[in-house]
Amino acid sequence: MQDSSPAAETPKPxxxxxxxxxxxxxxxxxxxxxxxFRGATLDQIASEAGxxxxxxxxxxxxxxxxxxxxxxxxxxxxxxxxxxxxxxxEPLEELLQYVHRKLEMSREFPRESRLFANEIIHGAPxxxxxxxxxxxxxxxxxxxxxxxxxxxxxxxxxxPRHLIFSIWATTQHYADFEAQVQVLMEGHDVHxxxxxxxxxxxxxxxxx
Amino acid sequence: MQDSSPAAETPKPxxxxxxxxxxxxxxxxxxxxxxxFRGATLDQIASEAGxxxxxxxxxxxxxxxxxxxxxxxxxxxxxxxxxxxxxxxEPLEELLQYVHRKLEMSREFPRESRLFANEIIHGAPxxxxxxxxxxxxxxxxxxxxxxxxxxxxxxxxxxPRHLIFSIWATTQHYADFEAQVQVLMEGHDVHxxxxxxxxxxxxxxxxx
DNA sequence: TGGCTTTTTTACCATTTGGTCAAGTTACGA
DNA sequence: TCGTAACTTGACCAAATGGTAAAAAAGCCA
Lengths: 208, 208
Fold this sequence. Notes:
The structure is a homodimer. By secondary structure, chain A is mostly helical. Chain A is built from 10 helices and no strands. Chain A binds a DNA duplex through α1 and α3.
């Protein structure tokens, strides 16, 4: 798949290519996550990236492709914490670690979280296939693992899918609804409190 | 405030006024919740409402006003379940009932939930004041109540604000991320499972 | 029915916006 | 250093979109 064949499609990304594509994607993440796909304009992205609009269209075939590129790149890193759960580990600790990793991602990458949330809220028009082919198998696999832990009596009985949904919901909430949380918790250390609360929540739920 | 004064601003909404304003708001809810504020077009709303675009602008001064009207109307009903918690009731049951009411709202009014989510994700540009003046006092009041229950030992110790956040997050997730949940749970009765799961989750968390 | 008000529509407008194109300009290997 | 390929830009477009104006139509009431 590495070219060398005559009609290879991807010759080789030059240094400038890599630098500018990255700039564009960084800018697009900022703008898309803040204004949504339709709310964002190429001019905004261009300005944020420090490039001209036609120049941006030199690197990407259109607004759509930038967005799709972002979503695809995101999907993988977004699911990493779930993949990192060790089936051989101590169940309760593994799951709590997963919660904390997800919460940490919300703090470190709120823009990515909002980009994702936006896409899903609008019916996932550009991610339908990925949900089916990437997310679903991973969820099923995780569900089986958790069911196994339940069957062995190592954690209290729970529906594994809804458990995962609730972990997603409670952790991403702090990124996606940051504007609201900010207003309601001004002064408090939000993530400190969230971390302690979620630890308690899932420990009480899952302790056999 | 009921007019009768000479320079009264609101003469009286005619039958046609009421009917058409309702049609427009219904249509706008549908369109805004699906495409977001900037993603929605007046033509879409007009078409959905069965009216012409200029006719819509006869009833509302602009796209913005329609959106704001929706958000304001929504805010109240959205917070009703929280207001309905009875400080004199049995704490655990009151809170569980709150969870179920919120979940029920997610099922019955997913469009409203998404409209709200959209607004917050984008930084609440049209709701900032309301969050401060309506939501925050209500949250504080509820927090005091819950803290009281904790102090009396009637529920297990929890941070009341994060508890409420997690209830919002876990219940609204089923509306806001419906597209994702749908794909991942095809075949299953989602709300049946969610209801049972959340019952378990918060019962285990809160039981003293 | 006649006359007034309310409602609706037809025809436009100005701006925004995604995208194109051809003419530069720059980088880089021979 | 020179030529070619890679990159950048200014000038444009066509379509979409929020919004307006004025005339036409529909209600409504005496």
